[in-house]
Amino acid sequence: MNRSYFSPAAYLSLLLAVLLGSACRSATADEAALSGLVFSDGAHLEQQRAKFTAGDAAVVSLVEQLEAEADQLLNAAPYSVVHKAQTPPSGDKHDYMSQGPYWWPDTTKSNGLPYIRRDGEVNPERATLTDHREMGELMNASETLSHAYYYTGQEKYAQKAAELLEIWFLADSTRMNPHLEFGQAIPGRTEGRGIGIIETRYLGKITDAVALIRASDAWNPELESGMQEWMGDYLNWLLTSEKGKNESVHPNNHGTWYDVQAATLALFTGQDSLARSMLENAKESRMDEDLEANGAQPKELARTLSFNYSTMNLFGMFTLARIGEMVGVDLWHYDTPNGANLKKALDYLLPAALGQSEWPHKQIKPIKPEELIPHLGIASKVYDPAYAATAQQLLKQYPEKAGSALHWPM
């Protein structure tokens, strides 16, 4: 494997963890873990855990629900790329493969090939390739289990999370090779595309899970070394492969989420300067390019699910801004040359989300206002506490999203 992106800083962090041993299983270890979380607000987690310990009824209820979900995962079968029935073009089942969601057989052709695009309409045939679903389930399970461990301290949750991560990423018989050469293939057209990289956009849930269970008895130097190596190899592929390079210059949500992944993995492997450089570049390559003066995102508005994609891309930008905080780059208060910024982009979406006006752009399915709850929680801390009240308003309409309050201020 290519080890060039497993940096000296990462090795030093691992060595310190080994030397400190059980001494690291303390509040100090928690603080170090919390400061680098990508898909949760670390300071908020700390506050919520204190409330849970003190018996705050609302937080206790949320943690009990989290525990119930985590308990269901304790007996979950492991996830792996080798479970799929199909074999990738490489002949190696350890290679991830998926099919582009919006591509369908051409009914004017006897064999349906090459497939044709129907934007926003998911071909159910895609589900026959199970890697995408299993990886998504792994990411969500890792998040649930690691947070359950953080809030309750119960080792069983950390143990299960570590087991799932080892099977997907490290075990010789089940591991995924660290690349996406065969992501989002199109029958009759291509065996894989760079835009398949969007399917790993939540890898930060995995690095967050590792951060949260490092203080547990379930984690050890061998697992740490293996995860550092795998993430380093995948980062190397993102940065150097043809598909990775193509995705890095993609002009819409694909480019945004490429940056999220690469910056996250750079931080995970101890390469803060690389992450910092990417975040500085994002001002021009993402925000300047993607935002109109009023906060609209024209590249996402061109889609048939324009609200969904605007919400998705904005969450990617919010995530970049959160990572920027970790390396001293302020995207929260950056104004583009046309006067746009992240706050305006959020405000542009709110009237439709709150039912105050119709969404004026193409949307072939109902909008999902609840997807803005994390954005609002984050904005309540960065911009204006009033956003928390808006988040609460949506939570009343979508109580199934109540668990968001364990991740974000609101």
UniProtKB/TrEMBL annotation:
Q: Looking at the UniProt record for this protein, which Gene Ontology cellular component terms does it annotate, in alphabetical order? A: periplasmic space
Q: Does the keyword Metal-binding apply?
A: no
Q: Which UniProt keywords apply?
A: Lyase, Signal
Tell me the GO molecular function terms: lyase activity
Query: InterPro entries per the record?
Result: Alginate_lyase_dom, Chondroitin_lyas
Q: Sorted alphabetically, which Pfam families does this protein's record hold?
A: Alginate_lyase (PF05426)
User: What domain of life?
Assistant: Bacteria
Residues of the Alginate lyase domain: 83-359
Residues spanning the signal sequence: 1-29
Looking up PROSITE patterns in the UniProt record yields: PROKAR_LIPOPROTEIN (PS51257)
Q: What is this protein called?
A: Alginate lyase domain-containing protein
Q: Which organism is it from?
A: Flavilitoribacter nigricans (strain ATCC 23147 / DSM 23189 / NBRC 102662 / NCIMB 1420 / SS-2) (Lewinella nigricans)
